[in-house]
Amino acid sequence: QLRGAGPAIAGINVYRKDNAAMAESIHALASKTTALLEAPSPDVGSIDLDGGFLGEAYGLPSQEMRDAVELVARMEGVLLDPVYTGKSMAGFLGQIMAGRYTEKEAVVFLHTGGSSGLFAYEEEFAAR
Question: Rounded to whole angstroms, how far apart are CA atoms 87 and 38?
């Protein structure tokens, strides 16, 4: 519910090694969104980012990303791009397996598109 305390924001940082800078960027976007909804803006310090799924660097494949992209394609028929959404899903699945979320929590994974980028990484999935 956005009316009241403001939204809880948790994410998987797959873009920058600096979580604090990423949280500031997300805070700016969240503040614009909540203003449109006439809802309270979250505090920048309350944005919870997991930076453990970036891998070596932005745009470079990781084994966790490969596994997540393949799993979601096989189980759900949804294609994830290997740069953002594949690594984000790897983080999300890792958080689920670690027990971060309870069965009663409503959690939304935001698929931001980009599945056509999957074809630029054909060699990463050819042997699989």
Answer: 32
